[in-house]
Design brief:
The chain is an alpha/beta fold and 443 residues long. 34% of the residues lie in helices and 12% in strands. The protein has 11 helices and 15 strands. Helix 1 packs parallel to helix 8, helix 2 packs parallel to helix 11 and helix 6 crosses helix 7. The longest helix has 31 residues. It is elongated, with a radius of gyration of 23 Å. The N and C termini lie far apart (50 Å).
Length: 443
């Protein structure tokens, strides 16, 4: 209960700071005359770019999304499972590729929701990934950060797979790092063998990798993972391994050694609900900067990966509908002065698990503030292509020669969540579809 209160208070604090910042910004352009207000959530890889190359339709699309002054016509947030850089860097990169201004406030990386996990901010955390992971961790609020390289330096004989990296001549003494309290997995590392070995060492020694392994150290110290994408699309014709593949390796190695399942304190990034809650908060911030007076009613999530973008958007829509259902039940109960015998609770298969929520099973927003729906739009310029067959309706048939469930181990397979609201060729067609749905002129 204390943990849930902590999450809720942190979320309210974050919301307050975001909304306060938004109110300080004004815009001469106001679109709030239309009662059907909406916001756009764009995935990046496979939707706007392929590696470092922009998809041609993306540039044309964004020329139509801004007015002649370069101001956005509707709230736009970029929601990516990438996490190997700072928001500022990603915003500058997108601005250059799309030839429109993208601010850091419009960018949400897979690790962005870690800002609300304040109960870990003062603990000693081991971070894994590539890029400026130590800087990223400090920027998110973590104060005591240890990297994989620091562990290697402190315990030179732990990393032994690559013979060229083994200590030469003599074995340096251990430096005995401070005990590690939690592990943060930002994204796929460069040297998988090193990270897998040292993370398992930390897990099996209760955060003291210089100590002996002990299978009795279970449950292990908390593990928080960002980005569950098994595959992602770059310049190659076929998908590339993502951080989800690294997690599969870690989970199986840990179980092979100990016989126990690796447990996650939190799974963050698409398709978790906490990610979309956070993205909706940024959409609200963008709407206020545009001077909108009416709440954003509908979110449109545009992506190329059925198991990340589409599953996540549909899961969030299910969360929104469940919240609406709960609100109606509460109102009915209040009117009747007691329990409503005709009101039915949400079916068990529609309830959110802790993993699907992102590790924080708590309502982050009041029901009055939530959007009415989130629609998913699948484009065919990335992981998904029209040649692919649909996933089977029977969960027992998830792994066959043609059909393989690419979702994370802790997410339930529900074929309905992988079915998009719309399928289009590219992002330009997706945006045109949204504006047509909402009755807005795009030009």
């Amino acid at each position: 209960m204390q943990r849930l209160r902590c999450f809720k208070s942190c979320w309210l604090l974050l919301r307050s700071s975001c909304e306060g910042a938004a109110k300080q910004t004004t815009s001469s352009r106001c679109y709030s005359h239309n009662p059907r207000s909406f916001g756009l959530l764009f995935d990046i890889d496979g939707v706007l770019v392929r590696g470092r190359t922009p998809i041609p339709a993306a540039k044309q699309c964004f020329r139509n999304l801004v007015d002649r002054h370069g101001k956005y016509k509707v709230p736009v947030v970029f929601v990516t499972n990438a996490g190997n850089c700072m928001r500022q860097t990603k915003a500058e990169h997108l601005s250059h590729l799309l030839e429109v201004e993208v601010s850091p406030d419009q960018v949400m990386l897979s690790h962005s929701p870690l800002r609300i996990f304040t109960q870990f901010h003062k603990k000693c955390v081991l971070v894994s990934g590539q890029g400026p992971v130590e800087e990223v961790a400090h920027n998110l609020g973590f104060e005591d950060v240890v990297t994989i390289d620091m562990v290697r330096e402190a315990y030179p004989v732990l990393d032994m797979v690559d013979h060229n990296r083994r200590p030469k001549d003599f074995i340096p003494p251990n430096k005995n790092l401070r005990p590690i309290d939690a592990i943060i997995l930002f994204g796929e590392p460069i040297r998988w063998e090193t990270n897998l070995q040292l993370i398992v060492d930390v897990l099996l020694t209760n955060g003291n990798p210089g100590s002996l392994w002990s299978s009795t150290q279970y449950p292990h110290i908390p593990v928080l993972a960002c980005n569950m994408d098994l595959l992602w699309m770059a310049e190659a014709k076929n998908p590339r391994f993502g951080h989800g593949m690294f997690l599969v390796c870690l989970e199986n190695l840990y179980k092979k050694v100990t016989g126990y399942d690796l447990k996650y304190e939190a799974l963050i990034g698409k398709p978790s609900v906490v990610t979309y809650n956070y993205a909706e908060l940024l959409i609200r911030q963008q709407a206020e900067k545009l001077g909108w007076n009416t709440p954003v009613k509908t979110l449109y999530a545009i992506g190329d990966n059925p198991m990340a973008d589409i599953y996540g958007a549909n899961l969030y829509n299910r969360y929104l509908q469940a919240s609406k259902h709960t609100k109606v039940k509460v109102q009915a109960k209040s009117c009747r002065g007691g329990a409503d015998p005709t009101a039915q609770s949400v079916d068990d298969h529609r309830k959110m698990t802790s993993a699907e929520m992102g590790g924080a099973s708590v309502a982050y927003r009041s029901e009055e503030d939530l959007p009415e729906a989130c629609s998913s739009i699948l484009v065919c310029t990335g992981v998904y292509s029209r040649d692919q067959q649909e996933l089977p309706s029977d969960p027992a048939q998830t792994v066959t020669e043609q059909h393989i469930f690419h979702g994370h181990r802790d997410f339930r397979f529900d074929p309905t969540l992988t079915q998009p609201s719309f399928v289009v060729q590219d992002v330009k067609e997706a945006v045109e579809l949204v504006f047509q749905q909402e009755g807005w002129p795009l030009e």
